Amino acid sequence: MSLSDEERFAIVLYRIEKAYAALEDVDKSIAMKMWSVAANRLYYALYYAATALLVRD
Protein backbone atom coordinates (compact mmCIF):
# COMPACT_ATOMS: atom_id res chain seq x y z
CA MET A 1 0.00 0.00 0.00
CA SER A 2 1.30 3.40 -0.94
CA LEU A 3 0.47 6.66 0.80
CA SER A 4 -0.43 9.82 -1.05
CA ASP A 5 1.55 12.95 -0.26
CA GLU A 6 -1.41 14.35 1.69
CA GLU A 7 -1.76 11.19 3.77
CA ARG A 8 1.97 11.09 4.44
CA PHE A 9 1.94 14.75 5.53
CA ALA A 10 -1.06 14.16 7.83
CA ILE A 11 0.65 11.22 9.52
CA VAL A 12 3.90 13.14 9.98
CA LEU A 13 2.04 16.13 11.41
CA TYR A 14 0.09 13.89 13.79
CA ARG A 15 3.25 12.16 15.03
CA ILE A 16 5.07 15.47 15.58
CA GLU A 17 2.07 16.79 17.55
CA LYS A 18 2.13 13.61 19.67
CA ALA A 19 5.87 14.11 20.27
CA TYR A 20 5.35 17.68 21.48
CA ALA A 21 2.47 16.59 23.73
CA ALA A 22 4.69 13.90 25.25
CA LEU A 23 7.42 16.51 25.85
CA GLU A 24 4.91 18.67 27.74
CA ASP A 25 4.16 15.63 29.89
CA VAL A 26 7.89 15.27 30.55
CA ASP A 27 8.08 18.80 31.94
CA LYS A 28 5.07 18.21 34.18
CA SER A 29 6.43 14.88 35.41
CA ILE A 30 9.81 16.37 36.23
CA ALA A 31 8.13 19.19 38.17
CA MET A 32 6.37 16.54 40.26
CA LYS A 33 9.61 14.48 40.56
CA MET A 34 8.00 11.52 38.85
CA TRP A 35 11.18 10.34 37.20
CA SER A 36 9.97 7.04 35.75
CA VAL A 37 6.95 8.72 34.17
CA ALA A 38 9.22 11.44 32.76
CA ALA A 39 11.54 8.80 31.28
CA ASN A 40 8.57 6.96 29.77
CA ARG A 41 7.13 10.10 28.18
CA LEU A 42 10.58 11.09 26.88
CA TYR A 43 10.90 7.67 25.28
CA TYR A 44 7.57 8.12 23.53
CA ALA A 45 8.40 11.66 22.43
CA LEU A 46 11.50 10.30 20.71
CA TYR A 47 9.55 7.37 19.30
CA TYR A 48 6.90 9.62 17.75
CA ALA A 49 9.52 11.94 16.28
CA ALA A 50 11.53 9.04 14.84
CA THR A 51 8.47 7.44 13.27
CA ALA A 52 7.51 10.80 11.76
CA LEU A 53 10.94 10.96 10.10
CA LEU A 54 10.61 7.41 8.82
CA VAL A 55 7.17 8.05 7.35
CA ARG A 56 8.40 11.30 5.79
CA ASP A 57 11.27 9.57 4.02
Structure notes:
Helix 1 packs antiparallel against helix 2. The protein has helices at residues 5-31, 35-56. It starts with a helix and ends with a helix. The protein has one domain (5-56). It is 86% helix and 0% strand. It contains two helices and no strands. The radius of gyration is 13 Å and the shape is elongated. It is an all-alpha fold.
Give a concise summary.
This protein is mainly α. Helix content is 86%, strand content 0%.
Average pLDDT for all residues: 96
**β-strand amount:** under 5%
Helix content: over 70%
The total of helices stands at 2
End-to-end Cα distance, whole Å, is 15 Å
Q: Please give the number of β-strands.
A: 0
List keywords for this structure.
57 residues; mainly alpha; 0% strand
List the helices and strands and how they pair.
Blueprint (H helix, E strand, L loop, with lengths): L4 H27 L3 H22 L1
Helix pairs in contact: 1-2
